[in-house]
Structures are given as C-alpha cells and as structure tokens.
Amino acid sequence: MGGYSWGSAFDSKSGQMIMVALLLMVGSFYTGTLFGNNNASIYVSQLSSSSNSSSSHGLFSLSLVKFYFIVVFMQSSALHGVFGDGFCSVECIYTFTNKVALAYRQTPIVIPESGMNVCPLKFNEYIPCHDVAYVKTLFPSLDLSRREELERHCPPLEKRLFCLVPPPEDYKLPIKWPTSRDYVWRSNVNHTHLAEVKGGQNWVHEKDQLWWFPGGGTHFKHGAADYIERLGNMITDDTGGILIKEVNRLLRDNGYFVYSSPPAYRKDKDYPLIWDKLVNLTSAMCWKLIARKVQTAIWVKQENESCLLHNAEMKQINICDTVDDMKPSWKTPLRNCIPRSAQTNPQKLPPRPERLSVYSKSLSKIGITEEEFSSDAIFWKNQAGHYWKLMNINETDIRNVMDMNAFIGGFAVALNSLPVWVMNIVPMSMNNTLSAIYDRGLIGAFHDCMLFALPVGHFVTWMHDKESYQDYNVQGFIIIRDEESFTSRVQHLAPKFMWEVESHVLENKEKKTETVLICRKKFWALV
C-alpha cells in the first residue's frame, strides 16, 4: 500500500487525538495559502534562527484533558523563502518527497509514506467546508436572508480534499507587526480587483508591491450603510426578534448594546415601525435606553429579575425553561425566550489587570476551589516561560494566541504582560467554563477543533479582513504535550505534513514528566 493506515495502527482514543492534531496541520495548509500557478517540485529555503530574530508571531494552545496544543502564528520579516529552524547556518534549499496530486478523504485515513500530497494549484483558494461551488448546491435548503450560505457546510467525507494547499507564487513572509497593521505584500493576496472594488470605500489601495489599508474605510461589498441596514432588519424580522433575544442571553448584566442602524435615526420608509418594534422588545427584556444621538442608540441590560417576571406575567416575553449551563451551547438552536438571571447577587469585579487574579463566584459554581485556582495560575506562568525558551524566540515575537482548551483561562493570564492577543477556546466536549473566563476579563468561545473562519492572509490579527482563512502562518508553531506513546506517533507523522518537530520533557500539574513536542510549520513553495 505504501501508506500509513490509522485503522490498524492506533486504538480508538489515540486515533481521535492524532486526528485532532493532523486536522490542525491539514487546516494550517488549507488556510495558510492562497494563490499560485505551477506544480513542479516542492522546495523549502532555510536560514538559521536566533533569539534576536526580527520575526513576529502569534500563539495557539490546545489541550484536550491531558492533551495540549500551542500554535504560534508568526509574522516575520519580508525575506522571501527563508525558514529559520536552527539547523542550517546558511541559506539552504531542500527538496521534499511529497507529491503534487489531488487526494480525498479515505476511511481509514491513509497518509502516503512520501508525505501528504500537495493539492494541484487550481485548488489554491479551496477552503474546507466553505467551498463556494458546493454551497451553491445547497441554496434551496438555506435561509439566504440570514446569510446561512456563509456558515460552515461540509460535504460528505469522500468529497473532502485531503491534501496540502500550496502558497501563492512569489509568496513572502508577512511584514512585521505593527507595520503589518497597515501593509500587506500584494503577491500574498494577488487579486488586483481588490483595489478597484474597494477603492471607493477607502478600505484598501494598491501601493507598489503592497496593499495599503489606510484605516477608516469599510470592506463591505455595498458599503457599511447597506450592511448596517441589513443587520437592523434582521434584529426585528418576522422571527419575533429572536436574534436580539440571543444578544440578551450573551450580554452580561449592566452590559451595553450599541445600535447604529437607520431605524435609530431615519423617519422615512418603514424605519419608524422597525424602531418601535425594537423599543418594545428591549423594554420587554428590561433593557434601558440611555442614549439616542446622531445615528446611534445605546441600551444597558439592567439587573432586574422582578421586571422580567412581571413582563412574563403580562405575556410580553417568554421565560426560558431551566437548562444546564455547564453544557456548551454548541450548535444549539436559538430559543425565542429570555433566560432568567444566572446570579441573584452578582459579584462586583475590579477592573483589569486586578480582575485576572480574583477568585470569582463563577469559579466556585463550576467546582474550582481557591487552591486549584491559585495552582493553575502558577502552573501556566511557569509553562509560558518554558515554551518561549523551547521555541527560542523573544517575548515580543508573539502576536496572536489561541488556547484550544483554555479551562479557566490560566494560560491567557500568564501571557498578560506580553503584547499578545489571546482567544480562549472551550472544546464542545468539555464542561462550560466560559463564565470563569469572562469573569477574568478575557475573551473566549466554544469550538469543535475545526478550522476557525478567520480573515484573509492573516493581515493583522484574526479580527481584520476577509476573503479567506489563515489559522497558521508559515514558521508558526504547534506545541503538543501528552504521554510518550502518543507524542511518538505525532512525531512520526508531522514531517509528512512538512512540519519540523523537536521533543522535550516538562512537568505536568501532577509533577510527572510529560513529553512536549515543538512543531514548526516550514516555509515551502512549488517551483
């Protein structure tokens, strides 16, 4: 067969863990590349690295029970074709054995001995579960008014590509932060019509070899006004305002809702009617309108349980049935009702950074003791220091961080003194600990270890731009830690995805030694 079959090599549990690791690696290649036009040999150019590298990165951490990943997104200098790995003292060119061939998912999954196949270049812009051609076949079953076509729609396994997407022709390593906030190499996103389509919106302009983002513009196809108007109509559509009721569920007590849409300031068309519906909805939810000026209205969600109960008795709203808050709300249908306040006597928390270290009521509610809380903070502070040393990078080289099993946000807190942006992820299979993460003043979300719908080209951070996805920049890291029996299998498979692997040993929370793999995504291209 000449391949590596999972069906016979791994038990069920290990196979699932390996699958998660490889999905991340496959995803990094699906989402980390865009355009190109030839399919010859695969090369990588390498140069020695040091702690004084001019690179700027981001970090991503995933842990499943005992199983951890950390992925570092790198925004490096503009030196094209250079990969720093510490093993080559001069610039080196390596030829890989990976083949350029279209491949689809099989059961069991088989990885060729020559390495993962590289997709033909005509699939450069292929995005898993966001394939435009496939989604169009689903239009009859989708609610286009709610833009369901933009959500994830995965084809059957046998129709999913299982090959690495190559980088575009003349791809350059991303410009170093903070310059990358305003400039992107044009060859990395070589769609010249961007400037034509977006020029009038002052979103992006062509400037020599660069795309320039002047700021203050908008990337919306028909301008921000059209986009905001659609949002306003969706909030009070014929579903009974179910979307704004979902906002109410997500909004914390004393939180603010800012509304900038034509119904807030225009008197023509049916805008006054929409405004009246919105005011009735927010009043029924016991929100208070505190400002309405120019083109914006602001409400505050009040702590008023008696108001909710009264309005429910008056049939103005429906109170939701009690649900288990510890279970993640992953892919749970929206409910056309209002939940009761989760806290009868909400705790007043201090501002950041003090808030990061406060033992909140939400921690007690999910069963975390003060001792466990303190122990978790100490552990992750130590681990963060170890990771930087093992990756051999400066503290300022990290830019974006994702912790894929954040638990109570200890790792993000450990990075608080660094100039990084952290997304905390609670896996859908774990208990709901987001309340503890939010109480610490951190950001977080549920997820299922699939690709994040991130912006094109990883221009600045994950919150900026469009058109495609890039979970892992070239030269980024994944840190995997688990028992030797598992990490040894990952160590064998990672090079087949053109990742470099180094093995280390650290202590876990139980003071037992644990294998830690530092995996780095190589910078390669078809030439």
Automatic annotation (TrEMBL):
<keyword id="KW-0812">Transmembrane</keyword>
<keyword id="KW-0489">Methyltransferase</keyword>
<keyword id="KW-0735">Signal-anchor</keyword>
<feature type="transmembrane region" description="Helical">
    <location>
        <begin position="404"/>
        <end position="422"/>
    </location>
</feature>
<keyword id="KW-0808">Transferase</keyword>
<dbReference type="Pfam" id="PF03141">
    <property type="entry name" value="Methyltransf_29"/>
</dbReference>
<protein>
    <recommendedName>
        <fullName>Methyltransferase</fullName>
        <ecNumber>2.1.1.-</ecNumber>
    </recommendedName>
</protein>
<dbReference type="GO" id="GO:0016020">
    <property type="term" value="C:membrane"/>
</dbReference>
<comment type="similarity">
    <text>Belongs to the methyltransferase superfamily.</text>
</comment>
<dbReference type="GO" id="GO:0008168">
    <property type="term" value="F:methyltransferase activity"/>
</dbReference>
<keyword id="KW-0472">Membrane</keyword>
<dbReference type="GO" id="GO:0005802">
    <property type="term" value="C:trans-Golgi network"/>
</dbReference>
<feature type="transmembrane region" description="Helical">
    <location>
        <begin position="442"/>
        <end position="462"/>
    </location>
</feature>
<dbReference type="InterPro" id="IPR004159">
    <property type="entry name" value="Put_SAM_MeTrfase"/>
</dbReference>
<dbReference type="GO" id="GO:0005768">
    <property type="term" value="C:endosome"/>
</dbReference>
<feature type="transmembrane region" description="Helical">
    <location>
        <begin position="17"/>
        <end position="36"/>
    </location>
</feature>
<keyword id="KW-0325">Glycoprotein</keyword>
<keyword id="KW-1133">Transmembrane helix</keyword>
<dbReference type="GO" id="GO:0032259">
    <property type="term" value="P:methylation"/>
</dbReference>
